[in-house]
């Protein structure tokens, strides 16, 4: 556990030698709007519902206005938050037709219970009526309500501990290995293969490393132009990765997805035919990129994708191959029904 007032950015009041805020007597406040913005986006983009009519997924958070803060007075915590939000949803009917719409929440506030939230769902103006709208109202609205309740729960549990300092009569907590540190340690030890990390020292750049190559082939039940857009369109990428993504779908455009685990740059784009990119995984040696070519061959009702991957660090072939198969190809098929 970090020392009081040090290490954890959630702690907003330090225990000072001049006895400032002794016994939590004074009013202290922490702005947690930044954390809330990020967490709300992450939670909302994970909303997906399905039924006999098809499937719907929130694809983007277009509006997120408001603020959140935590206050401590005499050892009691007060949580204040107020948000207005709008999210876009993409639906695919059981016959494969796509529809777009929006979800609006106008009163996410500490003054309202979750059951009192005003959540409205609608289709975009240019979209014809579809049973998917009923699916979103019947199943999507309760799921959005549940997710927003999860945000409030995490807000209170994430920040409560550090807001109340011990009184002058209480002993200071002794340093110990916290559960959070244990989790970080176990994550770093998941792979038995030595990997580069951001700590304690960066991997050397400009050093030649041994690499390998591999090829993959996959067939998708969709047209080449639809599959092409799926890889370079930010909205589609956010849907099948179920996370926030940054994708600039043009030559020289950068991309970052899966919480920053994957990044790179599009080096050549031939619409509906070929995608070339520099691609890297976060744990690879600094500034090292593989070269990936995706060739699309339209075969009427289906499209064959041939992938060529060159320059993968030696020892990373299996994990890279598995990652592309699982987090790209299988995720696209499961999400869009390709």
TrEMBL record:
PANTHER family named among the record's database cross-references: AHA1, ACTIVATOR OF HEAT SHOCK PROTEIN ATPASE HOMOLOG 1A (PTHR13009:SF33), HEAT SHOCK PROTEIN 90 HSP90 CO-CHAPERONE AHA-1 (PTHR13009)
Protein name (database record): AHA1, activator of heat shock protein ATPase homolog 1a
Highest taxon listed in the record's lineage: Eukaryota
InterPro entries, per database record: Aha1, AHSA1-like_N, ASHA1/2-like_C, START-like_dom_sf
SUPFAM superfamilies on file: Activator of Hsp90 ATPase, Aha1 (SSF103111), Bet v1-like (SSF55961)
Family note: Belongs to the AHA1 family.
Provenance organism: Seriola lalandi dorsalis
GO CC terms: cytosol
One GO MF term attached to the UniProt entry: ATPase activator activity
SMART domains assigned to the protein according to its UniProt record, in alphabetical order: Aha1_N
GO biological process per UniProt: embryonic neurocranium morphogenesis; protein folding
Pfam families named among the record's database cross-references: Aha1_N, AHSA1
Residue ranges of every copy of the Activator of Hsp90 ATPase AHSA1-like N-terminal domain listed in the record: 29-161
């Amino acid at each position: 556990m970090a020392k009081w007032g040090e290490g954890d950015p959630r702690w907003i009041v330090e225990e000072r030698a001049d006895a400032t805020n002794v016994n939590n007597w004074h009013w202290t406040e922490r702005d947690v709007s930044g954390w809330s913005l990020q967490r709300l986006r992450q939670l909302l983009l994970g909303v997906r519902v399905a039924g006999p009519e098809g499937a719907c997924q929130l694809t983007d958070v277009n509006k997120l206005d408001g603020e959140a803060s935590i206050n401590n007075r005499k050892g009691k915590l007060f949580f204040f938050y107020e948000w207005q939000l709008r999210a876009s949803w993409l639906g695919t009917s059981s016959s494969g037709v796509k529809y777009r719409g929006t979800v609006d929440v106008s009163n996410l506030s500490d003054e309202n219970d979750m059951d009192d939230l005003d959540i409205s769902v609608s289709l975009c103006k240019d979209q014809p009526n579809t049973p998917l709208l009923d699916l979103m109202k019947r199943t999507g609205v309760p799921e959005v309500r549940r997710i927003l309740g999860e945000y409030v729960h995490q807000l209170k549990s994430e920040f409560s501990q550090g807001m109340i300092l011990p009184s002058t009569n209480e002993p200071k907590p002794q340093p110990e290995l916290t559960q959070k540190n244990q989790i970080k340690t176990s994550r770093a030890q998941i792979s038995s293969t030595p990997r580069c990390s951001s700590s304690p020292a960066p991997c050397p750049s400009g050093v030649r490393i041994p690499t390998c190559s591999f090829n993959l082939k996959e067939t998708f039940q969709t047209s080449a132009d639809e599959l092409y857009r799926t890889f370079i369109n930010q909205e589609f990428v956010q849907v099948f990765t179920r996370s926030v993504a940054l994708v600039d779908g043009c030559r020289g455009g950068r991309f970052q997805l899966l919480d920053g685990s994957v990044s790179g740059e599009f080096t050549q784009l031939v619409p509906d035919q070929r995608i070339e990119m520099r691609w890297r995984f976060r744990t690879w040696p600094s500034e090292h990129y593989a070269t990936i070519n995706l060739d699309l061959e339209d075969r009427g009702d289906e499209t064959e994708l041939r992938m060529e991957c060159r320059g993968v660090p030696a020892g990373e072939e299996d994990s890279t191959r598995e990652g592309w198969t699982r987090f790209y190809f299988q995720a696209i098929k499961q999400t869009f029904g390709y």
